[in-house]
Design a protein that fits this description.
The structure is a single chain. The chain folds into 2 domains: about 25-325, NAD(P)-binding Rossmann-like Domain (Rossmann fold); about 350-505, START domain (Alpha-D-Glucose-1,6-Bisphosphate, Chain A, domain 4), CATH 3.30.530.20. The radius of gyration is 24 Å and the shape is globular. The chain contains 14 helices and 19 strands. The strands form 5 sheets. The protein has a 7-stranded parallel β-sheet, sandwiched between helices. The chain has a 6-stranded antiparallel β-sheet with strand order 14-19-18-17-16-15, covered by helices on one side. Strands 7-10 form a two-stranded parallel sheet. By secondary structure, it is an alpha/beta fold. It has helices at about 35-45, 80-85, 100-120, 140-155, 175-185, 205-215, 235-245, 265-275, 280-290, 305, 315-325, 370-375, 390-400, 475-505, and strands at about 25-30, 50-55, 65-70, 90, 125-130, 160-165, 170, 190, 200, 205, 225, 235, 250-255, 355-365, 420-425, 425-430, 435-440, 445-455, 465-475. Helix 1 (about 35-45) crosses helix 6 (about 205-215), helix 3 runs parallel beside helix 4 and helix 5 (about 175-185) packs across helix 7 (about 235-245). About 35% of the residues lie in helices and about 20% in strands.
């Protein structure tokens, strides 16, 4: 996808002057939410953008002559030196929130140390890091404490490191926004602790990107921290009430401080409860909830001295996010990053065919491929799965209960798909318009799964649609799992094909 197609032009009114044309900028964590908004802006301003991905399982969604794609893991220091060669500035946008709670702090610190050592051996001039607001205190959450530790590691290097600290980022598709939207529209009754009524200063994703680009183009900066935020400072309770009001939702709070359970445990209990009904994983939700105990607002406004633009207020930020959703212009989503358990899964074509169990069904439809393919590409999310939706929901609930992504992750867009998009507990691995859609499973199961839709034109303008389920079973349990689902597959898949035929011929 061309970056200009997905460019929101946040920085068109930025007063800074771009660095010389073709200056090479490195973006780590290039498949993350912030990075997907930042890359198009940098390309538009004339930079060469080197995008660093940790693994090859999900290809980049942006393609441009000035985009370089590299693969490296900051936990593997030997992979970093080639990535940093010829780079002027690096954006450090890496964090391990998806890792287990006991692991993410250590992994964040080790990754930062490795990156700094590799960067010091090159001619890189600046590192820009986006971290979290919050004063140093005993009550600081593990999430915020880890972000501050990473900032400290980067600052102690010999390279100029500019750290931006922000609170909640408001933008369609961000994890915080999606969680707030669920609570505002479906939460109804929300448990509340007095410890959670700290003050926060949300900031629009538009303003985050403007600050990131402005810091890049501002000459003469030294290593230091800048706090960034929107125009409004409010309590979390007021924030949720205002958010619900903007979305015409009605919520109520009830006090749970009387429950004789430590606050950390309550966060985990509520996070797991939300996990059953929202798309956000329990570990991310738990970290976000723990952060509510800390005040996260700007205590100084030094950033305004070098980048004097007026940030959006909370209401405008939410309204802009709603506009993007209404116009189907949500081009980046928190779910663009696959679960850690799926990071090493290879594409379907790289596996030996002898390892597979395959369930194949086909149908002839009296319509051309260009009419049928968009119908197939609308499966998942609020559109449902064309047939036996109750069975899909049961499988999604089972996956959610055992810690998987389930069906609540939905889709980025109800009609459009691109390679790398999440579709409930699937991810688009291959997409050839009018010919093939290949989905890779990210549900928890004793094996690896794919769902493939192939379209083949035949005589008289008809099309043969073939649906194949591919499965690589793990020993014993995988074979048992596949055998137990075979009859369900026949019922579901033949029904899906018949639904496609009916909709295509009626259209």
């Amino acid at each position: 996808m061309d970056p200009e197609v997905v460019n929101y032009h946040y920085c068109d009114d930025l007063l800074t002057r771009p660095l010389p044309p073709n200056t090479r900028i490195l973006i780590t964590g290039a498949n993350g939410y912030v990075a997907h908004r930042l890359i198009p802006e940098l390309i538009h301003r004339g930079y060469i953008v080197r995008c660093m991905f940790r693994n090859r399982s999900t290809p980049p969604i942006l393609i441009h002559p000035r985009i370089e794609v590299v693969y490296a893991d900051c936990l593997k220091p030997e992979e970093l030196p080639p990535v940093l060669q010829g780079v002027h500035t690096a954006y450090y946008l890496i964090h391990s929130m998806r890792a287990k709670k006991k692991e993410f702090h250590e992994r964040d610190a080790r990754a930062a140390h490795n990156f700094v050592r590799a960067a010091e051996a090159t001619e890189i001039q600046r590192i820009i890091y986006l971290g979290g607001l919050g004063e140093k205190s005993e009550g600081l959450s593990e999430h915020l404490r880890s972000r501050q530790e990473v900032g400290r590691i980067l600052t102690e290097s010999s390279i100029t490191a500019v750290k931006l600290r922000a609170a909640i980022i408001v933008g369609a598709g961000s994890a915080s926004y999606e969680l707030m939207k669920f609570l505002a529209l479906d939460g109804r009754w929300i448990p509340f602790l007095s410890e959670f009524n700290s003050k926060c200063q949300p900031i629009a994703i538009r303003d985050v990107i403007k600050y990131l680009v402005g810091i890049l183009e501002m000459p003469g900066l030294k290593s230091r921290v800048y706090q960034i935020g929107g125009k409004d400072v409010m309590s979390y309770k007021d924030l949720l009430l205002k958010f619900a009001g903007l979305l015409n939702g009605r919520i109520r709070f009830f006090d749970v401080s009387w429950v004789p359970v430590p606050v950390e445990w309550l966060c985990w209990i509520y996070a797991y409860w939300l996990h059953l009904f929202t798309s956000i994983p329990a570990n991310i939700t738990s970290l976000l909830l723990s952060s509510l105990r800390s005040d996260v607002f700007c205590r100084e406004k030094d950033i305004a001295e070098i980048l004097p633009f007026e940030p959006l207020n909370f209401q405008t930020a939410v309204q802009w996010a709603q506009e993007m959703e209404a116009q189907s212009r949500v081009f980046s989503h928190w779910s663009d990053v696959p679960p850690d358990a799926m990071k090493d899964q290879m594409p379907l074509f790289e596996y030996e065919s002898s390892d597979f169990e395959v369930d194949e069904h086909s149908i002839e439809i009296c319509a051309p491929p260009e009419k049928i393919f968009p119908i197939i590409c609308r499966v998942g999310g609020e559109n449902g799965w064309a047939h036996a939706n109750l069975l899909w929901e049961i499988r999604g609930l089972i996956d959610r209960v055992i810690g998987g992504v389930g069906l609540h992750r939905g889709r980025r867009d109800p009609d459009q798909l691109r390679v790398g998009d999440s579709v409930d507990f699937w991810r688009v691995e291959k997409l050839e318009p009018g010919r093939e859609l290949l989905l890779r499973a990210e549900m928890i199961s004793p094996g690896f799964s794919w769902l493939q839709f192939e379209l083949e034109p035949i005589d008289d303008g008809n099309t043969r649609v073939t649906l194949r389920a591919h499965f690589i079973p793990k020993p014993f349990w995988g074979h048992l799992y596949w055998a137990s689902l075979s009859k369900f597959h026949t019922y579901i898949f033949t029904g899906m094909l018949e639904s496609f035929r009916r909709e295509a011929t009626e259209a």
